[in-house]
Amino acid sequence: MAAAATSCGPRAGAPGCVVAAAGKDSVTSFQRRGPRASGPDGGCRRLASIAGTRPSVRNGQLLVSTGLPALDQLLGGGLAVGTLLLIEEDKYNIYSPLLFKYFLAEGIINGHTLLVASAKEDPAEILQELPAPLLNDNCKKEVDEDVCSHKTPESNIKMKIAWRYQLLPKMEVGPISSSIFGHYYDASKRIPQELIEASKWHGFFLPEKISSTLSVESCSLTHGYRSLLHFIQNIICEEGFDGSNPQKKEKNVLRIGIQNLGSPLWGDDICCTENCNNSQSLTKFLYVLRGLLRTSLSACIITVPTHLIQNKAVIARVTNLSDTVVGLESFIGSERETNPLYQEYHGLIHVRQIPRLNNLIGDVSDVKDLAFKLRRKLFTIEAKPDFF
């Protein structure tokens, strides 16, 4: 992305450029070529160094962590800046809020700016419920304790611990480090208050934005969607995330989290009837939102109750307008909940779509057989057994 790059100086010895400088003694020196992209002035540009980001090894696209390292691996290394991650909520909305909070907690740890939008919960209350990060030197210990606390054969325990170590990044002894890409979180504890107070965030609580004297506008977007788009656009422009007003300090990433989008709380009726009056409202909102994301240093996660949407054509359009789509299927209320074959798992996770950048359509993940479980402290993703 152009917004995620900074110009590289034309002088000899500039980092990230190939320099052939002939001195008076005709000695030529070369420097190692680094990640770069051509700029409009014919010079070279390199990816900006932003805390909590890294370039993709596949295409050089700037990535941020979802807050769940296992999910980062499934998505090709992380969530690309300028893209939208859609989480299909589980039936009782128990596990999807966890992924939503992991994404926000990762932003606080890395010093990213947050924009939290909800029609149900006050954003300030959502931040108070974020999970606490695990200390780097205790991370593997916590994984071991969570695995061993479940009664499984010794061979299975060793196998599962080894599998989890493959997902763990190299840890440094000491306090939490924002230089690590992707942290682990303790779901049984809350993030320290001092971290929340030191963070920069913006909240959008729909009930506070609704006026009793609304004027009827000739627009297919609901009032909640219009207000939210204006709010997001203002934050992006005023704080320089779009590059039009360069940030005075170090470059930063805006993490946008939108909860329960498409539910009746947002004034949308796609969950109430198959032939709804505002069937195009959500899709138009996503279309405009993606335009804002593509031209800014931002990444967005939204949760949508797709199991309540009556019209399947709307679900297909929502999927096509998202870059990455991950669905959660809980075992609660199903036959699998009481089946002993599934007793170690709480549900299935479906990676329905991963981004194919600079293309009109998304890609389909090759990984199909995945299950998740919420242990005492950790939310884990595993390859599900053959009997699934």
Automatic annotation (TrEMBL):
PANTHER family: ELONGATOR COMPLEX PROTEIN 4, PAX6 NEIGHBOR PROTEIN PAXNEB. It is found in: Cytoplasm; Nucleus. It comes from the Eukaryota. Keywords: Cytoplasm, Nucleus, tRNA processing. Pathway: tRNA modification; 5-methoxycarbonylmethyl-2-thiouridine-tRNA biosynthesis. Its main location: cytoplasm. Belongs to the ELP4 family. This is Elongator complex protein 4.
